[in-house]
Amino acid sequence: MPQALRYAAVIGKGGNCPPAVRDLAVRVGLQLAALHPAVVLVCGGLGGVMDAAAQGMTKGGGVAIGLVPAGHTPSVHLTYAIRLGLPLLFRDIITAMAADLVIVLPGSHGTVIEGWAAADRRLPLVGVGDHSRFPSACLPFTATAEPAELPALAAQLLGPLEVDRADQGRDLVP
Known about the structure:
Layout: E1 6-11, H1 19-33, E2 39-43, H2 49-59, E3 64-68, E4 80-83, H3 88-98, E5 101-104, H4 109-120, E6 125-127, E7 143-144, H5 150-158
Parallel strand pairs: 1-2, 1-5, 2-3, 3-4, 5-6, 6-7
Helix pairs in contact: 1-2, 3-4
């Protein structure tokens, strides 16, 4: 029986994102694209890690959905931008609620909010990159990984990733 699409949230530094973290996010997106069409990337839809991960995902042939807070312009690298009409803090919680798996790159307070909301749901949190100088170091990571390890680790954490091609593009009920 085909499985439902799975949503991998990629969270991390938005504003003032260091170039090394941005480059890491592009690599994360490219690796997640290897799981298309079974896995869709969901993010906060703005700059920094969100933009870079969406860039990698779409460049690799995957789908990136951005949950855009009120008053903000979405990333140009998104496949779909959902304008929530809600403040930033609400977007952070919704991102965690929409995910089946959360990939955490180094980030600040918004990343921490998203990460703890996901942890409260008992979602797997996969740390990527060096968090030692970022507030995101406090998150309870289920695992840590390099970008190249993400497809296998995501498949392990999410379970079977086969999607019936006839149902591609629809969110199936398991």
